[in-house]
Amino acid sequence: MDLFSPSYRTIILLLCLTFTPQQGTVLAATFTFVNRCDYTVWPGILANAGSPPLDSTGFELPKATSRTFQAPTGWSGRFWGRTGCNFDGSGSGSCLTGDCGSGQMECNGAGAAPPATLAEFTLGTGGQDFYDVSLVDGYNLPMIVEGSGGSGQCASTGCTSDLNQQCPSELKALDGNACKSACEAFGSPEYCCSGAYGSPSTCRPSIYSEMFKSACPRSYSYAYDDATSTFTCTGADYTVTFCPSSPRLQSEIFKGHNTNDFNTTNNGDRHRHRHNNPHDTNNTYGFRNWDWNRNRNWNWNWNRINRI
């Protein structure tokens, strides 16, 4: 065959297209999951609509181990830790907290049943990444997110407090192994930021969300808690740690945050928290104002909270 013939050039072009990575598969970030808990955690991974799944959607992470995944440019989704799981040799089973309802170790496109601590990411396409740790769907275990190798703010965020130990009785779930959101516990529009309460001016922090915010000042505590809870970084890799214990990480998360500064006026249009809750048919989450007169005897022992 003539090396300069049109047919030969066509073959070369087809080979190049076959073996050249497409733009959508260019790697944007590495996610490393680290388990510092005294027990096994089974992380779950849910890619948002339009984002490809990562190499796993659910896996076992024994204590003192880690696992790394690559994510493509533009990927968005969420991570959480499942606890109290029981899976057989074929991977069939379920979890006490954070269960995704798939009946398998792999979540296969299903999200976490609340209560569950969530880490949420949107990786920029040549721009900023957005990330947060959210307690809007409740809490089941401590979790932090750290960025490394990037530029910009790149702050650590998360919740290192054990809220299960301090959870009010009306929010306790699963024999004290998780703490519900007020929306999950009571289901009213005021708590869920829905209906007439579906705007920043009407969806206000409650004593419950302020309780979460005081214990975990950088985590989302209610649907419009954007100003102190969403973080950005460019070109970073990320580590998601369950049950973090490092004093450095704790001081970094707490640094520069006044636990009395609750933002109640931020519009939060870019990152309105409406998590996929299988028990919430309106797919809305949030909190309502606490009736101080009716519940003036309600007591939260603030001094016992590990405020980091």
Question: Could you provide a short overview of the structure?
Answer:
About 15% of the residues lie in helices and about 20% in strands. The chain is an alpha+beta fold and about 300 residues long.
Q: Count of DSSP helices?
A: 6
H/E topology pattern: HEEEEEEEEEEHEEHHHEEH
Sheet with most strands: 5 strands, mixed
Give the CATH class. Answer: Mainly Beta
Terminal-residue CA separation? 70 Å
**What fold name goes in the CATH topology slot?**
Thaumatin
Structural class: alpha+beta
- Could you report the average pLDDT, rounded to the nearest whole number? 78
Produce the secondary structure layout.
Elements: H1 6-19, E1 27-35, E2 42-47, E3 66-72, E4 76-82, E5 86-87, E6 93-94, E7 118-122, E8 129-134, E9 143-148, E10 157-159, H2 163-166, E11 172-173, E12 178-179, H3 182-186, H4 189-192, H5 207-215, E13 231-233, E14 237-242, H6 247-254
Parallel strand pairs: 1-14
Antiparallel strand pairs: 1-3, 2-4, 4-7, 5-6, 7-8, 8-13, 9-10, 9-14, 11-12
Report on the architecture of this protein.
- The protein has a 5-stranded mixed sheet, with helices on one face. Strands 2-4-7-8-13 form a 5-stranded antiparallel sheet, with no helix packed on it. Strands 5-6 form a two-stranded antiparallel ribbon.
- The C terminus is likely disordered.
- It starts with 5 loop residues before the first helix and ends in a 54-residue tail after the last helix.
- Helix content is 14%, strand content 21%.
- The chain is globular and about 45 Å long.
- It has a single domain, classed as Thaumatin (Sandwich), CATH 2.60.110.
- The protein has 308 residues and is α+β, with helices and mostly antiparallel strands.
- InterPro entries: Osmotin/thaumatin-like_sf (IPR037176), Thaumatin (IPR001938), Thaumatin_CS (IPR017949).
- Keywords: Signal.
